[in-house]
């Protein structure tokens, strides 16, 4: 490590400390903080955010980065860290400090108002806050826009480089042409599948115990992580040795917590597998689509396979005899893979999931690039659900208010859930050629799968883009054909 990079490292440590404090407040607000704390706590979050912002755009840090790059003595990884810092500095220094703080305060309050609105089934509580969030997003995108064709392209770039509206439109058009007829054909068959046993009463404390077991079985290290509860499951981390999962339990829907936990564990294993040289640097974590590829791979390609449940099913039956004692494993696997158009994204099946994402993508693209009225969103949302999935929400809480993302200012995130699905299929195909995933699962050898992913994905954090990962692992850049072929093969094989 060069002495010039050592100077930059001091600033990185300060930025990381401030970021960690903000992560802890986010975690607390979603899990344990009293509802009455939000207004005043948002001021603390605003002050910390402003301090972070001022440190990031300081002339001292800019000069230190310049000196380190100019020295020619930095390693390849150090240079990537400097490039990432320089990119963040350049983007953020165009945003007024006062507005940056206002936005941080707004989103902390907005997330609480979203939760209140969802629980009250009252969109009018949340709509004024969403309006402000959208205006800030447009304004900030305008400040930092360079050669992007649209404002929405600016937001997309924050989540995944190389994926703009043009590329995503092509991807989603291809998905719609393949998925909509497949969903209709398969859905007609799966209407007859018995899944009532999944909706019987299951003790919450027993669910917690079983979900903790599942997470540990998959490889989540509880010495370096915890699981809590929140309205909307998520994963966050301070660094690779402090990774936090939340999930949500329903007494009459054991399936929900199981697959939410597996999904979030996929994220958490990624975070815990990041290289020691990358954790606590600007390259920590992973690009949005690559991160989602890991959670979706664990949730669906691994977690919903018969091979995964073969060594575990007797334990599930023993823990919940009232649900599964008389249910054969094939019936269970068929039920957890049933496909039927539904209202809730996080509860949707693997086949219809990306249609939920397409709806959100089309709405938020128009929110940023067009003149979509926030007040009309419930109506537009319902129309799209009828068009793509043939279902219509009766309540705001199962429609426009079901996701937390927009309340937190995460506009541009949604499309990468679907891109993540496609990346998962592409990586899985390459991994399967190397280690035979099904045999690993049948023999309870999750470690071999985890080691492959750590070696090829997790340890690199954000030092590679999605296309770079895929090129290195599969020999080609993003190719959605793997995803379409995977879905077609799996669901026609199960149900046709």
Return the CATH architecture of the largest domain.
Orthogonal Bundle
Note poorly predicted spans.
none
Shape: globular
* Proportion in β-strands: under 5%
Class by alpha and beta content: mainly alpha
Number of domain modules: 2
Strands ordered across the widest β-sheet: 1-3-2
- Would you tell me which CATH topology of the largest domain applies? Neurolysin, domain 3
Q: Sheet bearing the most strands, described?
A: 3 strands, mixed
Number of strands: 3
Tell me the radius of gyration. 22 Å
Give the topology string: H per helix, E per strand.
HHHHHHHHHEEEHHHHHHHHHHHHH
Helix content: 55-70%
Global mean pLDDT: 95
State the separation between the terminal residues, measured CA to CA. 59 Å
SS summary, helix count: 22
Indicate the CATH class of the largest domain.
Answer: Mainly Alpha
